[in-house]
Amino acid sequence: MTKEDLVCEDHFIKTHYREKSIRYVVRLPFKEPPPAVNDSYQVAVRRLKRVERALKGQPTLCTMYKDFMYEYVVIIVASVAVISCLVDWARHQPTLLLLL
Fold first, then answer.
1. Whole-angstrom Cα distance, residue 43 to residue 37?
2. Helices (H) and strands (E) in the chain — how many of each?
3. pTM for the structure as a whole
4. TM spans, by residue (predicted)?
C-alpha cells in the first residue's frame, strides 16, 4: 500500500460510523483544507443584483430568465423528491442497500 492509501485507511477508521438506519457515514478526506466559502454569499448577491439591473430594461429577456429559473427550481425540487423516495424505498430492499 502507498502512503496515501494508508492515510485514507486511517481516515476511514477514525471517521466512519454506522447510523441506526444501517447506513455508514464517512467524512470526506481532503488533501488540503477545503477553500473558505465565507464571502461567497456576498459575491452571489452582487452578481444577482447585476443580473437584475441588466434585465430591468429588457422585459422579454427578463421574462425568459424568470421562466428558465422557475423551471430549473421545479426540476431540482422534483429530483430531490424522487431521490428521497428512492432512498426510502431502497432502505427496505436488502439487495439495493449496498448500492446506496
1. 10
2. 4, 2
3. 0.43
4. 69-90
